[in-house]
Predict the 3D structure of the following.
Amino acid sequence: MTVLKWILVLVVSYLLGCIQTGVIISGAQHVDIRAHGSKSTGTTNVFRVLGAKASLVTFVGDVLKGVLACLLGLWLLGNTGASLAGIAVVLGNMYPVFYKFKGGKGVATSLGTSLVLNPLLGLILLAVSAVGIAITHVVSIFSIVSLVAFGLINPFLCKGDVAEIIYSIVLALLVVWAHRTNIKRLLSGTENKLDFSRKTTKRNLK
């Protein structure tokens, strides 16, 4: 029975991650987000291509995937289940089987998992990132810093839970890996910034 629970948690969590909110939202507007901008299905690219409202819905949807996966793991297998479900759902978001393993960068979904496993730390890092992005208009650096900070801080707060320590470190490594091209641009000073004043129209997408 326990083995079946593990299979259920890991498979369902991965498949939840594979649901690409950005593809669904852009598809509703007759746009394939994977053909525009950075071609990522994540929140930032949706913002650049379709604007703030579509981006917000994408962000919320991707966060909810992380929350639901971890809650399922927590319900069936306790904190260890939630920790491994967190890794599985982020992997699904980044490498979705339904979309040729090309998805988002896992930031919003990672946030969703943190809100279950350490909600206070997750909210603090979200608030710091939101302020930093609003000031600098650079998303990638705060995405990387916030999740690396979570990976470094949470192991000291989880009371020695080995699974949660592994989850924290793996999450940070996955997000750094997903942002490797962003890191190169940050180092060269060529990283893109968000233009909060720009209005996107369908005419721009043709």
Q: What stands out?
A: The CA atoms of residues 65 and 174 lie 17 Å apart. The longest helix spans residues 52-94.
